[in-house]
Amino acid sequence: MKAKYFIIAILLVSFTVFAQETKVPKAVKDSFSKLYPKATDVKWDKEDAAEFEAGFKENGTDVSVVFDEKGNLKETETVIQISELPKSASSFVEINYAGFKISEAAKIIDSKGEVTFEAEITKDKVKKDLLFDSKGNIDQKDMSNENEVEEDEDKD
């Protein structure tokens, strides 16, 4: 019985040590609250040294928003149906990535209102994200950034 309590205590300490919360500046939280007052179960992550990402569901759809440390909205990413990608994006994948399937899609809107689409493609254990402009043309700078990863290593 003592061993059972000891194991529970060790597990609790382990979870406490590994579950570090992201410290989000007040300006960022305030901006988020103004834009999404009804959002619940918000998960915050640090994108880089000066950007913060909030992930949540809005009307049952996964959404993430990125703010700078001053609370300025940088981009909004919303999961969309694969069929909502521009047709030319789907065609590009079929022609240039034989054997790959589009597994997820998202619509990204930056702070200037520019729309970009993201298509996650997979083949076996390889996963890759491709970016397309609003017309479905591949983002050429994304092409030079080969970001293939093992599916098991890139868990969200």
Structural notes for this entry:
The chain has 156 residues and is α+β, with helices and mostly antiparallel strands. Helix content is 26%, strand content 38%. The chain contains 4 helices and 8 strands. The protein has an 8-stranded antiparallel sheet. β1 and β2 form a beta hairpin. The radius of gyration is 19 Å and the shape is elongated. The two termini are 37 Å apart. Residues 1-19 and 151-156 have low confidence and may be disordered.
Secondary structure layout plus pairing:
Layout: H1 2-18, H2 26-35, E1 43-48, E2 51-58, E3 61-68, E4 73-80, H3 87-96, E5 101-110, E6 115-123, E7 126-133, H4 140-143, E8 149-150
Antiparallel strand pairs: 1-2, 2-3, 3-4, 4-5, 5-6, 6-7, 7-8
The unreliable regions are 1-19, 151-156
What's the mean pLDDT score?
A: 83
- What Rg do the Cα atoms give? 19 Å
**What are the secondary-structure elements, in order, as H or E?**
HHEEEEHEEEHE
Question: How many beta strands in the DSSP annotation?
Answer: 8
Beginning-to-end CA distance, first to last residue: 37 Å
Name the CATH architecture of the largest domain.
Roll
Keywords:
Nuclear Transport Factor 2, Chain: A, 2 domains, alpha+beta, 8 strands, 156 residues, 8-stranded antiparallel beta sheet
Outline:
The protein contains four helices and eight strands, in the order H-H-E-E-E-E-H-E-E-E-H-E. With 156 residues, the chain is of the alpha+beta class.
